[in-house]
Design a protein that fits this description.
The chain is mainly alpha-helical. The chain has two domains: 1-50, Orthogonal Bundle (Arc Repressor Mutant, subunit A), CATH 1.10.10; 62-201, Tetracycline Repressor, domain 2, CATH 1.10.357. Helix content is 78%, strand content 0%. It has ten helices and no strands. The protein has helices at 2-24, 31-38, 42-48, 52-76, 82-98, 103-112, 117-145, 153-172, 174-177, 186-201. The N and C termini lie far apart (64 Å).
């Protein structure tokens, strides 16, 4: 039992850290609070994660970063059209990130990145750059096959990912993004976004 408990500690610490980072933000989260929430001492936390930045980076990698390797592998053997691939990427992002607590990490970065360049740089390397590369790969596939018209990839990629950012903000700051009288269905919103995007990308 002692061995199982020791192996469980990093995962428990990451779960506790995710909850507190999302609830309080990076600056306000204290490592003592993370340790207490996980039921261990601060010293035990530092055995696994030497600093708060290391802890946060592990949370980012565990909840978002690991997804990109999986998605790239899936697209290696994807048999459908590029339009279908784009639809799948939207649905998969919502299933694995957008609808989960992990979406709060992106909101945190949007709010606090300028104050913490070290974690911002890590987020760029683990999330932003792989995400952009993946979307560029999808768009390039569509252009190479003649399914999509030629576009400027450096800018078109932002048209693809901007719905993700809107949904992330609406999840965690709904009153600032959506009128109180309106209920937004994330699935219908993403379906509409990808339909509008495809009608602008598909070759005549």
């Amino acid at each position: 039992m002692r061995v199982r408990r020791k192996q469980a500690r990093p995962a428990e610490l990451l779960e506790a850290a995710l909850d507190l980072f999302i609830a309080k933000g990076y600056a306000a989260t204290k490592v003592e609070a993370v340790a207490a929430r996980a039921g261990v001492s601060k010293g035990t936390l530092f055995l696994y994660f030497p600093s708060k930045a290391d802890l946060f980076n592990a949370v980012v990698r565990e909840n978002i970063g690991i997804r990109f390797q999986q998605w790239n592998q899936e697209f290696e053997t994807f048999q459908g059209s590029t339009a279908e691939m784009l639809r799948y990427s939207y649905c998969s992002w919502w299933e694995h990130i957008g609808s989960t607590r992990a979406s709060g990490i992106t909101k945190l970065m949007l709010c606090e990145a300028s104050n913490f360049p070290e974690i911002a740089q890590f987020y760029q390397q683990e999330v932003s750059e792989p995400g952009h590369a993946l979307m560029r790969r999808i768009l390039q596939r569509g252009m190479d096959s003649g399914e999509f018209r030629p576009v400027d990839l450096d800018h078109a990629v932002y048209a693809v990912i901007s719905p993700f950012l809107f949904l992330t903000l609406s999840q965690h700051a709904s009153l600032a993004c959506i009128p109180a009288s309106l209920t937004v269905s994330p699935q219908l919103y993403l379906e509409n976004q990808v339909n509008m995007l495809l009608h602008g990308l598909l070759a005549s």
